[in-house]
Amino acid sequence: MNLRRSQYKIGDVPIKALNGVDFTISEGEFVVILGASGAGKSTILNILGGMDTATSEQVFVNGEDITKFNEKRLTSYRGENVGFVFQFYNLTPNLTALENVEFAAEVCKI
Ligand SMILES: Nc1ncnc2c1ncn2[C@@H]1O[C@H](COP(=O)(O)OP(=O)(O)O)[C@@H](O)[C@H]1O
Ligand SMILES: [Mg+2]
Fold first, then answer.
1. Are the C-beta atoms of 52 and 7 separated by less than 8 Å?
2. Which parts of the chain sit beneath pLDDT 70?
3. Residue 40 Cα, ligand 1 centroid: separation in angstroms?
4. How far does residue 46's CA lie from ligand 2's centre (Å)?
5. Does residue 51 have its Cβ closer than 6 Å to ligand 1?
6. % helix, strand, coil for the chain, step of 5
7. What pLDDT is stored for residue 109 in this prediction?
8. β strands within the chain, DSSP E
9. What contacts 13, CB < 8 A, 6 or more positions away?
10. Residues 53 and 78 sit within 8 Å (Cβ to Cβ)
11. What structural domains does the chain harbor?
12. Largest CB tally within 10 Å, which of 57, 64, 76, 102?
């Protein structure tokens, strides 16, 4: 993963969430990403998980640059390569626990 810059915009103000981030994770390696609140940990995980895209630079997974993937390829990338436990569970509040599980299963079939 090599990210010179992954940028959010609040109004007209650009916020560089990841600046000069460059690292490699080998297959089978167990990695902890540690940093202060606001350092960019969630942004890294969202990009690696195919839920967000980098503003510039490259993210190689198994030799392929996932920043070049279109929505369709990102969807299959997420389905086949990514397991994600959300920090705040991302449950739908008006559904029961069982309905939330069924909903997740339906979404994964897409
Ligand atoms: N959707 C967003 N819009 C604007 N700024 C954001 C957004 N998400 C994160 N940021 C900003 O990007 C920086 C990194 O955030 P984040 O990746 O959530 O950090 P961490 O997970 O390490 O706490 C912070 O300055 C945060 O305020
Ligand atoms: Mg976070």
1. no
2. 1-5, 108-110
3. 6
4. 10
5. no
6. 30, 20, 50
7. 66
8. 2-3, 6-10, 13-18, 21-22, 60-61, 64-65
9. none
10. no
11. 2-109 (3.40.50.300)
12. 57
For residue 45, which atom of ligand 1 is closest to its CA? 17
d(CA 86, CA 43) in angstroms, rounded, equals: 13
Q: Which amino acid is at 22?
A: D
- Tell me the residue type at 101: V
Residue 2 has phi, psi (to 5 degrees) of -130, 110
Q: How far is the CA of 37 from the centre of ligand 1 (A)?
A: 9
Closest CA to 25 of 55, 52, 62: 62
Supply the DSSP string of 80-92, one letter for each residue: HH-----TTTT--
Where b means 16+ CB within 10 Å and e means fewer, 84-93 reads: eeeeeeeeee
**Count of helix runs (H) and strand runs (E) in the chain:** 3, 6
Considering the entire predicted model, what is its pTM?
Answer: 0.80
